[in-house]
Amino acid sequence: MNLQHLLDKSSRDHSHLCPRQVLGVRLGLAGMKSIGFDAPPDQKQLLVIAETDGCFVDGLSAATNCTVGHRTLRVEDYGKVAAVFVDVETSRAVRVAPALDIRQCALAYAQDEPRPYFAQMQAYEIMPDEEMFTVSEVRLTASIESIVSRPGMRVNCDVCGEEIMNEREVCKNGMSLCQPCAGTTYYQPAGFFLRQPVGIGEVKPNSAAHD
Question: Class of the 3-147 domain?
Answer without folding.
Answer: alpha beta
